[in-house]
Amino acid sequence: MMTIGRNGMVAAALATALTMAAPAGATVIGFDDLSASDDPIADGYAGLQWRNLYVLDPSTAPVSGYTNAVVDGRQAAYSGFDDAAEIGGLSDGYVLQSGWFTAAFNDGLTITAKGYKGDELIHELSFVVDTNAPTLQTFDWRGVTRVSFAGAGGKDRFFDMSGTNFAVDAVQVAAVPEPATWAMMVLGFAAVATALRRQRRRVMPA
Questions:
Q1: 106-131 pLDDT, tens per residue?
Q2: Whole-prediction pTM
Q3: Which residues are CB-contacts of 85 (< 8 A; sequence separation ≥ 6)?
């Protein structure tokens, strides 16, 4: 015989709530469905907005960090002209989870990421990348509408080429519960609490 008491019901309710609160519907943006290397990534791709980011096919790139930039598939994206790159079109309903970054020419390149909600800066993070392999950077930023990435510093590895450009691949974003979902969760907890106050311990067959 197995007894399901108050603790078991609370544990089940908590497990359900945690499942609902976790990001869902994760999307990995790998740029492999874009056709022409070196073309700018157009607004609307993957439902987002893109500034100073271009399609990268490493097979067409000179010997550089670009040849090591692809994590999965055959293409990545890269920043141009030593300028900052930007991904926009995000909303409160999404979380920027992570991305893989590779320096194009300078080892020890520092990339500074800034997350904005409208014009308000709400997140900032700097990390260092090299040319020999991609580096996974986790953000888990919620509530941002756009994110900028700017490279700086480092030491050129390839002698005749230098610059603060970088490549990015496998950018991951995910949906998070909408306010209505959170409201349903609160109501669900209230219902569970009411049931626990009224319920007697039940005995169920094993």
A1: 999 999 999 999 999 999 999 999 99
A2: 0.76
A3: 51, 52, 53, 79, 148, 149, 150, 168
